[in-house]
C-alpha cells in the first residue's frame, strides 16, 4: 500500500490543470480548518470552497468499485470508514461555513473544473451584490441637484 499515493494522483492533477486553465488559483493539499486534521485537494481560502477528488476504489464509487477477493472483510470495513470520514468531513466543513465539492476520479476533469468555476462565479456575484447592497444602505440617499441660484442683480 505504500505505492498508493495520498495526493497528487493522476485524476487530481488533471482536475487541477483544468481549474488552473480556467484562470482560478487555489491552494493544493491544504487544511481548510488548520486545527482539523483533514486535507482538501484544492482549496479556495477566500471563497471558503474545498474540493476533493475521490478515488473510485478508496471511496467505494457506486459505478466502479469492485470488492476485493482477498481480505474482503478488511477492505469492506476500510471503504465504509473512508466513506463515513468523508461524510463527517463534509458536515464539519459545512458547519464552519465552507462549500464542499466532491468529484469521482472517473469524472471528466474539464466538467469538474467547470463546476468549480460556476460555483466560484456564483460566490463572486453574491459577494459583489452584498457589497453593493451594503454600500447603498450606508450611503446617503440620492438627491437631485439644486437648480442654479438666480442672480439678484440680473
CATH-defined superfamily of the domain at 10-33 and 44-124: VSR Endonuclease
What is the name of the CATH architecture of the domain at 10-33 and 44-124? 3-Layer(aba) Sandwich
Number of strands: 4
Beta-strand content bin: 5-15%
Structural class based on helices, strands and sheet pairing: alpha+beta
The average pLDDT is 87
- Amino-to-carboxy terminus distance: 96 Å
Instruction: Describe the largest sheet.
Output: 4 strands, mixed
Region (Disordered): 127-154
GO molecular function, one term: endonuclease activity
Keywords: DNA damage, DNA repair, Endonuclease, Hydrolase, Nuclease
InterPro entries: DNA_mismatch_endonuc_vsr, Restrct_endonuc-II-like
Would you kindly provide a written description of the structure presented here, covering whatever features stand out?
This protein is α+β, with helices and mostly antiparallel strands. It is 45% helix and 14% strand. It has a 4-stranded mixed sheet, sandwiched between helices. The mean pLDDT is 87.
Task: Record keyword descriptors for this entry.
single chain, 154 residues, alpha+beta, Endonuclease, Chain A, 4 helices, endonuclease, hydrolase, DNA damage
Protein topology:
Layout: H1 10-21, E1 27-30, E2 40-44, E3 49-54, H2 56-59, H3 72-95, E4 99-104, H4 109-138
What is this entry, summarized?
Belongs to the Vsr family. With 154 residues, the protein is of the alpha+beta class. It has 4 helices and 4 strands.
